Amino acid sequence: MTIFTKIINKEIPADIVYEDELCLAFKDIKPQAPVHILLIPKKEISSSQEITKEDQNLMGHLMVKIPEIAKQLNLSTYRLVVNTGEDAGQTVSHIHIHILGGRKLGWPPG
Ligand code: 5GP
Fold first, then answer.
1. Radius of gyration for the chain, computed over Cα atoms and rounded to the nearest angstrom
2. Distance 87 CA to ligand 1 centre (A)
């Protein structure tokens, strides 16, 4: 169990921007851009490496929600990031899609 499960269970507060029975989107506590949202499935999947066929509809659901959340936040241009594993910068072992926007983003990432 990670801190994100506590956020899902409302045991710790978060600034939630979208929620349904399958997923939750909330503001990152340490934003790296003017808009920095984390979109997570409520199911505990530790990283993108642990996605299985069973998760196909669930992960598809998250992808469908991205443009809706972006519209809600008035984001027309943004970047999606899924850090996977320590060297890629993953610090929370519950899969999360970063939605970053509100400024020009450099490429390539560090
Ligand atoms: P990662 O580094 O694993 O790709 O991303 C984890 C993200 O979770 C980081 O950007 C970090 O700021 C965010 N984060 C960690 N703990 C909390 C928390 O308790 N609340 C919120 N809203 N974000 C968190």
1. 13
2. 16
